[in-house]
């Protein structure tokens, strides 16, 4: 059986459901149509006895693999957020529902996280039972660069990284490779990029006794991937343990002895000051939440990112500067980390809906 749409390809071969994201020119950035197609496919396969497991990959510019998913379609988000398009609300509600389904999927879900894996791409991979990285993987949650926050369950999975890695990744948006993704609990194993096609074909053609046998096959392709940031971990844990964004930045700017700390401070100075404060609060709240509660909190937050301050959305401005006008000079408001007050941050965590009417009320 093969089902083809412009942006998502889905087929069952042997005992495995195979999904290919097929928007390579946009690095497979997720549109609302793609979210709906993925949801429909996974729901159909959930109770299909022929399907023992699901595997997902992205098409790159030169064919299969090479790019997994660069996130959500931020041009759409800018347009919708600027014009009041109601599909903006649908996008986040349906995307977060998809993220939740993947985390709770009753069958093995194998994500081939080759190349770019950012934002929404993390949302459709982190819930997987087998998360594969390659030597080409560039993994990040870079939302503070566009005045947003690491959503799609980012509060949940980043807050569960060791030490203060979650705060560092969420605030800076820095990218990591295969070895660090595994060390930080964001991937399960590394497969050489040139071996992915063989593994994909093996999944489609081998006879499997059960779902466990599918996962066991994948594990035979894993190779060692040493972390690159092992020596940096003590610095990450020391600086990003501080109580506030201002204290984190002061600590980094006053550090001596290596180039990492001042470079990291300089990165933070470029991000949205308001959203840095919001994100630090998000990660620390999420440590005590289950996934459903975190996604409901993030759904509240993303609504506020677009509508809390009419005409002054950090997210609309951030996307404008990065992807629309491409001047890379966002006009953040407030402009400085030190000018953000608790009263500016608190409203992001107040739900605009009563609990019974929340768009994600049914998630458990």
UniProtKB/TrEMBL annotation:
Domain Enoyl-CoA hydratase/isomerase as annotated: residue spans: 16-349
Keyword annotations of the record: Hydrolase
SUPFAM superfamilies with a match to the protein in the record: ClpP/crotonase
PANTHER family on file: 3-HYDROXYISOBUTYRYL-COA HYDROLASE, 3-HYDROXYISOBUTYRYL-COA HYDROLASE-RELATED
UniProt protein name: Enoyl-CoA hydratase/isomerase family protein
Family matches, as InterPro entries: ClpP/crotonase-like_dom_sf, ECH_dom, HIBYL-CoA-H
Pfam families the UniProt entry points to: ECH_2
Organism per entry: Acidovorax lacteus
